[in-house]
Amino acid sequence: MTWLTKSPAETRHLAQRIGALLQPEDVVVLIGDLGAGKTTFVQGLALGLGIDTTQNPVTSPTYQIMRHHNGPIPLFHYDAYRLENAEEFGDIEGGDHMGARGVVAIEWGERIEEFLPTDTIRVEIRHVDQESRAITLQPGERSSRIQTRLELLNDSSV
Ligand SMILES: Nc1ncnc2c1ncn2[C@@H]1O[C@H](COP(=O)(O)OP(=O)(O)O)[C@@H](O)[C@H]1O
Ligand SMILES: [Mg+2]
To answer: Phi, psi at residue 43, to the nearest 5°?
Structure first.
């Protein structure tokens, strides 16, 4: 399924609806160029997880590699952009939260493929124009679960 969002707010809203369907231990990988909207999407996921982001907003974890947000379902937000290689992710114990009681969201997660569970939820965000993005849930068991629920909610468009 591909959604077309026409503003950062629409991307956050879509991600919020997806975030509300996530469960602890889900791992979400964000695939897309710089400025595609990966961090913007994670902001919406946090809202969907019921996290209060007023005190601790979701921002790019590029320099810290990981940012933690507490809430009903905690969020561990990673950015693998600055890693030299996947081993470095292992060295900083980057995989520690995989399978923990929280949702893991990883920007540039395709760079650390070997750390990802087989049922990773992959979200691809592509530039369409300055304010529009095409957002696709790539095929997968957990992705289909989410897609089906969005469809049942008759919620397949933004
Ligand atoms: N439809 C859209 N969805 C998401 N971001 C958008 C959209 N249109 C414009 N933008 C802009 O694109 C940029 C996305 O930035 P960010 O989320 O940090 O990207 P990334 O984490 O992929 O590098 C922001 O400046 C945002 O305002
Ligand atoms: Mg980012």
So the answer is: -60, -40
> Is residue 131 within 6 Å of ligand 1 at its C-beta?
yes
Could you tell me the residue range of the domain that residue 105 belongs to? Answer: 2-140
The verdict on the CB of residue 152 being under 6 Å from ligand 1 is no
Report d(CA 40, CA 2) in Å as an integer.
17
pLDDT of 101? 87
- Structural domain includes residue 157: no
Instruction: Specify the CATH number for the domain of residue 116.
Output: 3.40.50.300
Give dist(CA 125, CA 5) in Å, integer. 10
**Residue 40 CB less than 6 A away from ligand 1:** yes
Of all residues in the chain, what percent are helix, strand and coil, respectively (each to 5)? 35, 25, 45
18 vs 34: CA distance, rounded Å: 22
Q: Which residues of the chain have pLDDT under 70?
A: 154-158
